[in-house]
Amino acid sequence: MKRIAVEGLPEEPLAAAGLFHQNWLDPVERALEAGEDVLVTLDPADHTHDEWRKAAAAMLARKHAPRRVVLVAGEGAALQPIENYLASAPGVTGQYLKAAG
User: Fold this and answer.
1) Cβ of 11: how many Cβ atoms within 10 Å?
2) What does the angle CA 95 – CA 59 – CA 18 come to, to the nearest 5 degrees?
3) What is the pLDDT of residue 101?
4) How far lies 11's CA from each of 45, 46, 54, 56, in Å?
5) How far is CA 55 from CA 17, 52, 84, in A?
6) Cα–Cα distance between 42 and 9 in angstroms, integer?
7) CB 42 within 8 A of CB 6
8) What angle do CA 13, 92, 63 make, to 5 degrees?
9) Alpha helix ranges (H) inside the chain
10) What is the pLDDT of residues 29-45, one digit of tens each?
11) Residue 8 has pLDDT above 80, yes or no
């Protein structure tokens, strides 16, 4: 999977969603359209960000099936176990996961 690290999103959920769609949606979709599965990593955030992140993952997966896309909140070494799992789980797509941290 290609890892795309999303950084610098605001703390306010609506602003974060807007910036994600404005700055990061295009690179994610280009990778998917090029035939790559994508792991989008995001900085951890509180529960107020869950809904827009879940929706983005689900809509990207629907639009680009059979390519896989998963959004994961976490940082550093906490992301590696999830990436390892996804490498051996070809049916997992359209999910928003949170790395233990």
Assistant:
1) 11
2) 100
3) 67
4) 8, 9, 17, 17
5) 10, 5, 24
6) 9
7) yes
8) 65
9) 13-23, 25-33, 50-64, 79-87
10) 999 999 999 999 999 99
11) yes
